[in-house]
Amino acid sequence: MKMMTLGPFDGNAWLLGRKIERTVAEWKEPARLAIVAMPSGTKHEEYLAAVEDATGVPVVGATTGGVSFTERGFSRSGVTCAFLGGANVEVACTAARELRSDHGKSIRAALSDMDEAVSSGSGRSGATSSILVLADAFACDGDDLVAALRQGVPPHTRVFGGTAGDGWTFEGARVFLGRKVLTDAAVLVRLTHRQRVNIDVVHGFRAAEGGRDFTITDIERNVLRTLDGQPAARVYEEELSRLGFRSSGEGLLQTMAKHALGAKTPFGESLKIRSPIAIRGDGAVVLTGGLARGQVVRVVNAATDAVLQAAKSLSTKVLGPLPAVAGSLVFDCAARFRMLGERYREEVRAFLSPNAASNPMFGMACYGQIAKFGGSVEGFYNTSAVMVAWGESDQGTAGG
């Protein structure tokens, strides 16, 4: 499986199409899939049509949490593309619709459609399957989404991706399939290939110094109603103010999303972190994924150096064992982008291979990160960076 990237690109859809035509024509590999990351507010349909017309391959993608990047750098406003290809790669795409009403039913139907498409194709023995997921963050509980995927795919299948953002406005995200712009949906892509896929996840966040413990006293799935018996939003806001995290130029929800809630786990100091995505009028806080009644949570924080060091350790673990990196995909939390500010360019550089000057890389900021692989206890994350990579040879040498 090979990869080529384009962008970040600032220009109209027609110019993007012409640039893609030239780039793909010069590529030595047959393209099989286009992945597109775009900011909110862009004329998404026009750009999707341009990409599809220029490549003639399936197109998938999502709106970002504020930024996308390649090995060339990052952009808040540009369009970023990755092209996967190669003679030994097969692709099947579908959408799980009406996700909000029933995650399990929606995912099962989508996987069934994809299985039919794969079975009607040629199929190849000895090949490995991985699944890329891009979901509407406002339509899903990330934990329920991953649970549905776990039940629907073989245990060895690596699943990765993220939930779409909307530039930190928390009003509505979009995912893309072909020329269609979808809400209340998850786009699934099955990649059949011969390479071993390496995958891992890091965050670098910890419980805020001086923070207090709060017990979850009322929660339903991902809707957190009360902490210590009091409305969750009020308790949360008071704690953010006490810790000095509130600022006059930032909305409460945006501050909460930068300083999420970390739940204690049985694994030492490890935290299960969940970010708010909405505040309800009754004082409830909607999280990107679920927690449980009785769990103890604290506000989390991260120093910029800790976030950057986590990114370096991620690339070392995922890319380091590969003698030659054919491509890497990164799904980074939008909160990390907001925390780092102009130092985000340092994180983008840190995501590149420690063994070479550069490698093809596509990344985007999202509101939730997905990584299911051998040895992973969780499958859905917040404040994290997920990296997926593969080498030039048919089989990698390591990987989660």
TrEMBL record:
Residue span, FIST C-domain domain: 232-373
Domain FIST: 29-231
InterPro entries listed in its UniProt record: FIST_C, FIST_domain_N
Protein name: FIST domain-containing protein
Source species of the chain: Sorangium cellulosum (strain So ce56) (Polyangium cellulosum (strain So ce56))
